[in-house]
Amino acid sequence: MSDSNNKFDPKPIKSVLDDIIAQKPLKKGMQQIRICNAWGEIMGENIIQYTEDVRFSHNNLYVTLRSAPLKMELSYGLDSIVKRINDHLGGSFIQKIVLV
What structural domains and CATH numbers belong to the chain? Predict the structure, then answer.
């Protein structure tokens, strides 16, 4: 009779978590969270104060801002913001930012 403990080799917890996250539904959700969080990481604390909501859908990042002047100011540099966020994420995830 064989010992059942010999059937499984121990695995580091990081490896187990990576395997779980690699499942398609979880991977997509985690990627959306990373993309939405990148807005705050790139734009900084001052912009975050005026940001109400950040959503990602169909390669577009939808950002709801409370300040009309800030929205106008940011609208002039949306292409560079898209590039900065995609560089930060290490891929081409966002095609367009829509300020709401």
Answer: 12-99 (3.30.300)
